[in-house]
From TrEMBL:
Transmembrane segments: 40-65
Gene3D superfamilies in the cross-refs: 6.10.250.2090, Band 7 domain
Taxonomic source organism: Sinanodonta woodiana (Chinese pond mussel)
Primary location: membrane
Family statement: Belongs to the band 7/mec-2 family.
Lineage of source species: Eukaryota, Metazoa, Spiralia, Lophotrochozoa, Mollusca
Keywords, alphabetical: Membrane, Transmembrane, Transmembrane helix
Pfam families recorded: Band_7
Subcellular location: Membrane
Protein name: Band 7 domain-containing protein
Residue stretches making up the Band domain: 60-219
Keyword Methyltransferase included in the entry's annotation: no
Length: 292
């Protein structure tokens, strides 16, 4: 009982959505007349022909659409009420009905590189990728001749228009914000075509060669300046530490002599060479004093 009520509720929701979609179809308010006398005659003749050629006629009347597909049916040029059919089996009358299969899966396409003049008068080449899907099959067939081609053209123009309002710095640093802006504008524009834009991504931003060289030179100069500042700070700290060490060693002659011998030891360990160093003046003065 609960399953029956849930199924009935779902059918009511789907029927309401389909009815609202039919109201959005261009010319739906004008499509109020019935089939007319000729239409009923053709329908009757087609049904009689199907019955007379059973079971061979079942090959032409039974159609199947996949889970990710929907069928939009036209009878004598008029869109049938009830919206798109599927998934599963549905029936058509071959002589008077035609149908179109609509794929509901997400489709991606690359926006060709667009040359854009930014707000600060810099020419950049930008390409993107757009992910979209058909959300309302009936509207995508009835309101636009080629929904996929129209969505591609709209994506190109929208990308150029939005990038034209941005500075070069904003384009290079705020790709996510630009992608969301393009998606919002594009989704609003394609809603009347039954298409929902799910995601827009900026793939690459190519700059002119001269501008690339200028930016590279600017970045290199900035790095060199930062390196010089760091080196100067290191020398300042080293000089301060050396001054403090010298003040400590001047307080003891033995410490100064040990530092002198340590320096000689480190020099002799680096290269095999003979080092001549002066005799401390204290020793020389001691011998002179003994001779006298």
């Amino acid at each position: 009982m609960k399953n029956y009520k849930a199924e009935e509720t779902r059918n009511n929701v789907v029927h309401h959505a389909q009815s609202s979609d039919e109201q959005k179809i261009i010319g739906a308010e004008e499509n109020t007349d019935g089939l007319g006398c000729c239409g009923w005659i053709l329908t009757t003749c087609s049904l009689l022909l199907i019955l007379a050629t059973l079971p061979i006629s079942l090959i032409f009347t039974i159609k199947v659409v996949q889970e990710y597909e929907r069928a939009v049916i036209f009878r004598l040029g008029r869109l049938m009420k009830g919206g798109a059919k599927g998934p599963g089996i549905f029936f058509i009358i071959p002589c008077i009905e035609t149908y179109s299969k609509i794929d509901l899966r997400t489709v991606s396409f690359d926006v060709p590189p667009q040359e854009v003049l930014t707000k600060d008068s810099v020419t950049v080449c930008v390409d993107a990728v757009v992910y979209y899907r058909v959300s309302k099959p009936t509207i995508s067939v009835a309101n636009v001749e080629n929904a996929h081609h129209s969505a591609r053209l709209m994506a190109q123009t929208t990308l150029r228009n939005i990038l034209g309002l941005k500075n070069l710095t904003e384009i290079l640093s705020d790709r996510e914000g630009i992608s969301q802006g393009v998606q919002s504008v594009l989704d609003e524009a394609t809603e009347r075509w039954g298409i929902q834009v799910e995601r827009v991504e900026i793939k690459d931003v190519r700059l002119p060669v001269q501008l690339q060289r200028a930016m590279a030179a600017e970045a290199e100069a900035s790095r060199e300046a930062r390196a010089k500042v760091i080196a100067a700070e290191g020398e300042q700290k080293a000089a301060k530490a050396l001054k403090e060490a010298a003040e400590i060693m001047t307080q003891s002659k033995a410490a100064l002599q040990l530092r002198y011998l340590q320096t000689l030891s480190s020099i002799s360990a680096e290269k095999n060479s003979t080092i001549i160093f002066p005799i401390p003046i204290d020793i020389v003065s001691h011998f002179i004093h003994n001779d006298k």
